[in-house]
């Protein structure tokens, strides 16, 4: 996909989802960090249901360390991998207190040093909490990028991120991240993508192949 075509595709997706944003509910960088940590292999909808009460009970890193691990586990039991995540939350809180004075650090290197915080989580926190341009590649961003040919099918998550960073203007990294997520979550889904009404179908090899197969199947069944 050349630069002009990519620009056209991104503009179209922007028109489809003008209100794209981070859908994880949070009031500050610390809550966002916890929410993104919880969201691994879990939907934002489920995380928001859990944090609705979690963030009222626990307001600071000290609060998470004031209860037994088993109690925190129970509070996030509806979240996948809740035991591992509960342990990481308490370890993270201890490091935030001991190394950063109780505040979530503002650098990518310091964020990724925290338990349970990978590159994607750090990018989300940097871009949404601290307004530092970043592209966090989650399952939706990866899928859409590969379907549209911005990245190759066998590219790693890091390779997808680097290719997007090279091809998208830096000042658009964060909003592009949100728009690609919305596009993947609500339109170009993993199962049953809306190819038949997709305004960028002409630029999607996988989508065109799906439509061709669908037409062939219908013609055979007649």
UniProtKB/TrEMBL annotation:
Sorted UniProt keywords: 4Fe-4S, DNA damage, DNA repair, DNA-binding, Endonuclease, Glycosidase, Hydrolase, Iron, Iron-sulfur, Lyase, Metal-binding, Nuclease
Domain HhH-GPD positions: 38-186
PANTHER family recorded: A/G-SPECIFIC ADENINE GLYCOSYLASE/ENDONUCLEASE III (PTHR10359), ENDONUCLEASE III (PTHR10359:SF18)
EC nos: 4.2.99.18
Cofactor(s) for this UniProt protein: [4Fe-4S] cluster
Keyword check for Transmembrane: no
One example of a Gene Ontology biological process annotation: base-excision repair, AP site formation
Co-factor binding details: Binds 1 [4Fe-4S] cluster.
Recorded GO MF terms: 4 iron, 4 sulfur cluster binding; class I DNA-(apurinic or apyrimidinic site) endonuclease activity; DNA binding; DNA N-glycosylase activity; metal ion binding
UniProt record similarity statement: Belongs to the Nth/MutY family.
Domain of life: Bacteria
Reaction catalysed by this enzyme: 2'-deoxyribonucleotide-(2'-deoxyribose 5'-phosphate)-2'-deoxyribonucleotide-DNA = a 3'-end 2'-deoxyribonucleotide-(2,3-dehydro-2,3-deoxyribose 5'-phosphate)-DNA + a 5'-end 5'-phospho-2'-deoxyribonucleoside-DNA + H(+)
UniProt function note: DNA repair enzyme that has both DNA N-glycosylase activity and AP-lyase activity. The DNA N-glycosylase activity releases various damaged pyrimidines from DNA by cleaving the N-glycosidic bond, leaving an AP (apurinic/apyrimidinic) site. The AP-lyase activity cleaves the phosphodiester bond 3' to the AP site by a beta-elimination, leaving a 3'-terminal unsaturated sugar and a product with a terminal 5'-phosphate.
Gene: nth
UniProt-recorded name of the protein: Endonuclease III
Stored NCBIfam families: nth (TIGR01083)
Database matches in Gene3D superfamilies: Helix-hairpin-Helix base-excision DNA repair enzymes (C-terminal), Hypothetical protein, domain 2
Chain ranges passing through the membrane: none
Tagged with keyword Nuclease: yes
Residues noted as binding [4Fe-4S] cluster in the record, renumbered to the chain: 188, 195, 198, 204
EC main group: lyase
């Amino acid at each position: 996909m050349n630069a002009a075509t990519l620009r056209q595709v991104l503009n179209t997706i922007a028109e489809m989802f003008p209100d794209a944003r981070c859908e994880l509910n949070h009031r500050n960088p610390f809550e966002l960090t916890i929410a993104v940590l919880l969201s691994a292999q879990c939907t934002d909808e489920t995380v928001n249901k859990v944090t609705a009460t979690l963030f009222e009970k626990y307001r600071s890193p000290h609060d998470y360390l004031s209860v037994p691990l088993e109690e925190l586990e129970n509070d996030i039991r509806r979240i996948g991998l809740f035991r591992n995540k509960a342990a990481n939350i308490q370890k993270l809180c201890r490091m935030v207190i001991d190394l950063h004075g109780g505040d979530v650090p503002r650098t990518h290197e310091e964020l990724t040093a925290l338990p349970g915080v990978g590159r994607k989580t750090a990018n989300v926190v940097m871009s949404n909490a601290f307004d530092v341009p970043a592209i966090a590649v989650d399952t939706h961003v990866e899928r859409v990028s590969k379907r549209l040919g911005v990245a190759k099918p066998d590219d790693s998550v890091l390779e997808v991120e680097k290719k997007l960073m090279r091809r998208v203007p830096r000042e658009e990294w964060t909003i592009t991240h949100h728009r690609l997520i919305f596009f993947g979550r609500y339109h170009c889904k993993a199962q049953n993508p809306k190819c038949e009404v997709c305004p960028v179908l002409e630029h999607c090899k996988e989508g065109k192949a799906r439509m061709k197969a669908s037409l062939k199947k219908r013609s055979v069944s007649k």
